[in-house]
Write a structure and sequence with these properties.
By secondary structure, the protein is an alpha/beta fold. Helices cover 25% and strands 20% of the residues. It contains eleven helices and 19 strands. The strands form six sheets. The protein has a five-stranded mixed beta sheet. It has a four-stranded parallel beta sheet with strand order 6-4-2-7, with no helix packed on it. A four-stranded antiparallel beta sheet has the order 17-18-16-19, with helices on one face. α1 packs antiparallel against α5. The two termini are 74 Å apart.
């Protein structure tokens, strides 16, 4: 998967401060009347247009400006919130040169926005140079969730149950589960939240300096389904061999993954700041780094043996595979851990790296050792295929009676009797026309039951001399 280039970063005072603030996620889409993306033609209704909302969809729509329309078809259950200065007036005259009178403007389905879609959330404590794996791009267990008060919105909760630290909506912040449940059951709540899923709040911040797991493991299939829906549900092709899939990520990527075990002295936020300050230099500006605590998978437990249930995952993702930046940065980080690991509270570190670029990758990668090593294998495979094809042709010809051979000591006596074969016109050429006498006919073999054969002039001379 390709990531947007965030460039290099240094940990300035404002960035480092952002790392220590409580994480919260901001909801991005809205159902505002004046947002062109909410209309079928990606433009707001023209003067004199017919405006139609989905009849059977509940929706709350904020109107910020004045609009002149010919018809206004409202949903069966919904609301229009008129901001200061907003109004509707009737008009059948189209004074906009880009529109015709009575043109139809359809409001898009307000239920298309899903909680599980990572592209619909923005982390307000994001730091330049860092990214989050897909499962952590939607609200985690200890996150504060904010819906902007100056817009209208509608959220599909989808299946399952999700728990966050707090929810802010319509100017209210809900930190008690009973208060949130009452809001969701109200008309205002039902206009803005829908679907079979449940939403709860537990006002507990992450008190562990080593970090807390996101808690979205069970929701990852829905997160990936929502994220990949525009791509037909399939991950894009990666440009490297042996691509890696970090915990919490929907698709494979090229780069490296460092897994850390830690002691009581480890501080996740301080370690993030250290990576930004020390390692994300201009030479690594094509890399992105994700650092978080994740649960150890069963595969890791079986390979590493008994140990803690969680580990720190450091993902080094390459925006353009082939540069080798992830490998170099991984080695730099491991060297730093070897020198300062005890002071940082890091007990052990392991690294996994993706393979060389595939065809279509960077030119430098195609000229590298991985590409050259593949050439002998291709040649060997071609030779093996040629040998197998030759053996197959020999067996096929022998079964068809077109090819035969014998050893001298095992040769059967020449058959006698009249010939039962046929003349091969291929050999009725000038060289053979000069011959006045054909070679003697082979005698039938008493030890065989087959009477179907033909005279091959290539072997006839040898049989005459014998």
């Amino acid at each position: 998967m390709r990531f947007p280039d965030l460039g290099f970063a240094s940990c300035r005072s404002s960035s480092c401060a952002a790392l220590t603030r409580a994480a919260y996620k901001l909801w991005l889409p809205n159902t505002d009347f004046d947002d062109a993306s909410n209309w079928s033609q990606n433009q707001t209704p023209c003067a004199g247009a017919t405006v139609e909302f989905p009849a059977h969809k509940m929706v709350s729509v904020l109107v910020r400006a004045g609009h002149s329309v010919s018809d206004l078809l409202l949903p069966l259950d919904g609301e229009l919130i008129l901001a200061s200065g907003a109004a509707f007036s009737a008009s059948v005259t189209a004074w906009d040169p880009n529109c015709s009178a009575g043109s139809l403007a359809l409001f898009r389905d307000p239920g298309r926005f899903l909680w599980h879609d990572p592209s619909l959330w923005h982390s307000e404590d994001a730091v330049r140079g860092l990214f989050s794996v897909d499962a952590e791009r939607v609200p985690c267990r200890h996150d504060d969730v904010v819906f902007p008060p100056a817009t209208s919105f509608r959220v599909g909760l989808g299946p399952g149950t999700r728990t966050v630290r707090s929810v802010s909506a319509l100017g209210q912040t809900f930190t008690r589960d009973d208060d949130l449940a009452a809001f969701l059951a109200s008309r205002a709540g039902r206009l803005r939240f829908h679907g079979p899923g449940a939403l709860h709040v537990v006002p507990e911040a992450c008190a562990d300096p080593s970090g807390c797991v996101c808690g979205n493991d069970e929701e990852l299939p829905w997160v990936c389904a929502a994220l990949l829906q525009p791509l037909g549900g399939r991950c894009p092709a990666v440009a490297c061999r042996d691509a890696l899939q970090p915990e919490g990520q929907c698709c494979n990527l090229c780069g490296a993954i460092i897994s850390l075990t830690h002691g009581a002295a480890f501080d996740l936020e301080q370690y993030r700041a250290r990576l930004l300050r020390t390692f994300l230099l201009p030479e690594y500006q094509r890399l992105q780094v994700a650092v978080s605590k994740v649960r150890r998978t069963q595969r890791v437990r079986e390979a590493a043996g008994p140990g803690p249930d969680t580990e720190i995952q450091v993902v080094l993702a390459e925006a353009e595979p082939g540069g080798g930046g992830a490998t170099r940065l991984a080695q730099d980080i491991l060297a730093d851990i070897a020198e300062n690991g005890e002071a940082l509270g890091i007990l052990s570190a392991t690294v996994r790296e993706s393979g060389s670029p595939v065809m279509g990758g960077s030119v430098a990668g195609l000229d590298g050792p991985g590409h050259r090593a593949a050439i002998p294998g291709v040649v060997a495979a071609a030779l093996l295929l040629a040998v197998l094809l030759a053996v197959f042709l020999v067996v096929l010809l022998r079964r068809a009676g077109r090819l035969r051979w014998s050893r001298g000591e095992d040769a059967a006596p020449a058959p006698t009797g009249p010939p039962l074969g046929f003349d091969n016109p291929v050999f009725d050429s000038a060289g053979f026309a000069d011959s006045k006498q054909r070679p003697p006919a082979p005698q039938p073999d008493a030890g065989t039951t087959s009477l179907s054969y033909f005279i091959n002039p290539l072997f006839a001379g040898q049989e005459v001399e014998a």
